[in-house]
Design goal:
CATH class of the largest domain: Alpha Beta
Pfam family, one: ADH_zinc_N_2
Number of helices: 11
InterPro entries: ADH-like_N, ADH_Zn_typ-1, ER, GroES-like_sf, NAD(P)-bd_dom_sf, Quin_OxRdtase/zeta-crystal_CS, Zinc-ADH_QOR/CCCR
Subcellular location: Cytoplasm
Number of domains: 2
Helix content: 25-40%
Keywords: Cytoplasm, Metal-binding, NADP, Oxidoreductase, RNA-binding, Zinc
Distance between the termini: 12 Å
Subunit structure: Homotetramer.
CATH superfamily of the largest domain: Medium-chain alcohol dehydrogenases, catalytic domain
Structural class: alpha/beta
Largest sheet: 7 strands, mixed
């Protein structure tokens, strides 16, 4: 099977950062699905794994943790899907990735693809949707059905992949969304997705948020990096919650959190698959629920740019764009050259 892989961990401008390779086609066992991959999405986690380091892979390593495709075969213990089903998923960071013609993935972390979307549009959704959903509804405990209607959420880094879907999930839960964006194009983007207010995260945010009439906000999601930690602590309401997806070495003073009895949550959507948690199947359920929301017109895809075909050259360009830190929405690669 064709695949885009690496043997050395190189800067993205190195032509050998990715290679077009031919690898053996895997076979499904246990609860695995063998998926014929039709489109893949690139995320910051891909660039972090590829980050230059002194390591050489004897067998080419396939990255990629966002895909849509068609079930080719199922393992003997699989019960949720059958061959021919169209699916989408983020996968498991401890296993071979989705940048290949065929991939094995545990059915418990796979959802039925939205019927109203093509493969490229669907591939933009899984990782960021899982991250945003778990951040809001599992970590912060927000009610997705609207029981917390009118509460406020500050989404820091709202123009990126996770933020783009988070805005929509928050609005579906009837929250008041304060989104951050720093460029005209991302400001327009987050407004288009439903943000009620927009502030610039490259300027002091406390003053901007309070100028909107919010002394504190009920929930805060940090979807870029923790340089905004002290701002978040200042703005979170007493007994409110902050969720972050950034693993950081920055100092994180906690006195303000203690004085407010506020809570800090970490979101890592690979945790369930990595640790084989008893509730792994929740990711199947939530991806299938989101697909229904998409088909009902309540959530839209966040794809912004599509490269064709899936090959090493296009993968390098996608990684380069992600590494600029200025990508809007999601970057997808679709189709394999014949």
């Amino acid at each position: 099977m064709k695949a885009v892989a690496l043997t050395h961990y190189l800067p993205v401008d190195n032509p050998k950062a990715f290679l077009d390779v031919d690898l053996p086609k895997p076979a499904a066992s246990g609860r695995d699905l063998l998926v014929s991959v039709k489109a893949v999405s690139v995320n910051p986690i891909d660039t972090k794994v590829r980050r230059p380091k002194d390591k050489v892979e004897e067998v080419p390593r396939v990255l990629g943790w966002d895909a849509s495709g068609i079930v080719e075969a199922v393992g003997p213990d699989a019960t949720l899907f059958k061959p021919g089903d169209e699916v989408y998923y983020a996968g498991d960071i401890t296993r071979s990735g989705s940048d290949a013609e065929f991939q094995l993935v545990d059915e418990r972390i796979v959802g039925f693809k939205p019927k109203s979307l093509g493969f490229a549009e669907a591939a933009a959704l899984p990782l960021t949707t899982l991250t945003a959903y778990e951040a809001f509804f599992d970590r912060l405990g927000i009610d997705r059905a609207g029981a917390d209607k009118g509460q406020s959420v500050l989404i820091i880094g709202a123009g990126g992949g996770v933020g783009s879907i988070a805005i929509q999930l928050a609005k579906a839960a009837e929250l008041v969304v304060i989104a951050t964006a720093s460029r005209p194009e991302t400001t327009s983007w987050v407004k288009e997705l439903g943000a009620d207010h927009v502030v610039n995260h490259r300027e002091p945010m406390v003053e901007q948020v309070r100028a909107l009439g919010f002394q504190h906000v009920d929930h805060i999601a940090i979807f870029n990096d923790m340089r905004h930690w002290e701002t978040a602590v200042e703005l979170i309401r007493p007994q409110g919650g902050i969720v972050s997806i950034d693993d950081t070495d920055r100092p994180m003073p906690m006195e303000g959190m203690k004085m407010k009895a506020a809570s800090l949550h970490w979101e890592f959507m690979f945790a369930r698959a990595m640790h084989q948690t008893p509730d792994m199947i929740e990711q199947h359920k939530l991806l299938t629920w989101v697909a229904e929301e998409v088909d009902a017109g309540r959530i839209r895809t966040t794809v912004n740019k599509v490269f064709t075909p899936i090959n090493a050259v296009n993968m390098r360009e996608a990684h380069r764009l992600i590494e600029t830190g200025a990508a809007k929405g999601k970057i997808v690669l679709e189709g394999w050259a014949s």
